[in-house]
Specification:
The chain is of the alpha+beta class. The chain is built from 4 helices and 5 strands. This is L-rhamnose mutarotase.
Length: 118
């Protein structure tokens, strides 16, 4: 079962170019850790000074996999570069840096039965 996650954070205007440069070449070890932690289809979108992140989780224990990511030394070094570029929108409830968003609607893929869509 796929779980979808959306989140927001503010991009500090004076750090915009640095953040974009970093994300033009995300470190392979960071990407590998995300995949090992059951993260799929991770995207970050930019609008003015807001970053919107979206990913799909395909594992069985999201909290444990998030803890694995946070404990990874290469990810910690990555965050040491990217975190100063960002400003949290929330009071960091539960230690969350990005502000979680509630899913309101989702268009699922059509299933085909005997060559016909439902």
């Amino acid at each position: 079962m796929v779980q979808r996650y959306g989140m927001l954070i503010r991009l500090r205007p004076e750090k915009r170019e640095e953040y974009l440069r970093l994300h033009a070449a995300v470190w392979p070890g960071v990407e590998r850790m995300l995949r090992e932690a059951n993260i799929r289809n991770f995207s970050i979108f930019l609008h003015d000074d807001l970053l919107f992140g979206y990913y799909e989780y395909v594992g069985e224990d999201h909290d444990a996999d998030q803890a694995r990511i946070a404990a990874d030394p290469e990810t910690q070094r990555w965050w040491a570069l990217t975190d100063p570029c960002q400003e949290s929108l929330s009071a960091r409830e539960g230690g969350s840096w990005w502000t979680p968003m509630a899913e309101v609607w989702h268009l699922a893929a059509e299933s085909v039965v005997d060559g016909q869509a439902p």
